[in-house]
Design a protein that fits this description.
Length: about 500
Amino acid sequence: MLTKTDYVEMAKGLSYPSQCLIDGQWVNAASGATFETINPNDGSLLATLPACDAFDVDAAVTSARAAFESGIWSGLHPSERKAVMSKLADLIETNTEELAVMEAIDAGKPITDCLEIDVPETATCIRWHGEAQDKLYDQIAPSASNAVGLIVREPLGVVGAVLPWNFPLMMMAWKIGPALATGNSVIVKPAEQTSRTALRLAELALEAGIPPGVLNVLTGMGPDVGEPLGRHMDVDALTFTGSTEGGRKFLEYAAQSNMKEVCLEMGGKSAAVVLEDAGDIAQIAEIQANAIFWNMGENCTANSRIIAHKSVYDELVAEMAKQAEAMALGDQMDPNTQNGPLVSDEHFEKVSGLVETGKTQGARLVTGGTGAGGLKFQPTVFANVTKDMDIFQQEIFGPVVGITKADSDEEAIALANDSEYGLAATLYTKDLTKAHKYARKLKAGTVGVNAYSEGEISTPFGGFKSSGFGGRDNGIHAHAQYTELKTIWITLDD
């Protein structure tokens, strides 16, 4: 691995697309409007990008529809789409260091995480969905001898994909991977804070052979680009990862327009449940430190709540404090940095405000609780957290964990489920029966047992309750939300 100096120098020499992509062409916003993106580490200007609006959305939708109807991508044999997507995955891997540096600068993510996780998983996702598509079969329904009932899946058409700022490359891959594999045309709206890697990935897609109009990228603000996409009468589906508030808006947009299909992966307030027989508490604390502090806590599945049986509670609080205090904060370009800056001033203020609310409402601040220079925030541990506190119920989306005491295993499960969210959960027990029993009882889309895990590319990802709606990312199940079932009934009478 290179040094911080190496990565800083590499960043100076990188060339980024600075326009949006419509119909295979790099263009400015029709209005000429622009916005600035900022390095969260030092506040320096990174780029001036097009601030697109409804006019640009119309142009992108027109291009995407024309490409879809032409069959230039949708009409290809699945193996041909697979070949192009495999080439795109190859290009991502070839440009790993470049993409990792871009991602780190834009989002404040530690360069090591970008190199080892974000970029490799982006390539894996694109390759996996491409490989899967020519291995899926339609069905023949049971019928009388004088008829054949075919059950086929067809691409929806034009898909809008609205991305979050915390995992820009990975989330783009999660959306475009299955959408492109199934033959759709896609319009991507990246988060305004982290748009540049989406543009670079689109540039690589063109190089790989994705035809013009099949993949479009529009930069700009949510109300100016996201809402017109959500309301557009010629967009067939909308996939969104972001806040629950934002997800609700897209449901409204769909209902008020053409009833487009909507798939939402939204907020989380994931709980880790540590039962009386959980085992090695120091090891559990190490796992849970990663579960909440990784990526500065800017992760929708972060275990921001720990529900611990009273018999292990005090030990767990002490061990979590040790883990928090050992985290290395610093410049995101330093390979030794474990946590970089939060993504923006606005988000820093949100995290700080909820920490102060936690103290005011009676939680005990064990360690952390303040900024650490610039937009960096100390890993923070609260004890004596009760279910009526804001830090128990609200998504903080920062490196802040609250630990709650439970008198019994049953109470621990009940507390874990006492949330409007249901994205993920973690369960610690040495009892196989309890593992099966309580994993079933936890109301979450993904449950990790004796490990913090979101699964992998082959397993569906999404949530219950206010954490999810309309489908799943990842796995073969993701393909379903970008296709429509059709029955073809053929009568064989002479």
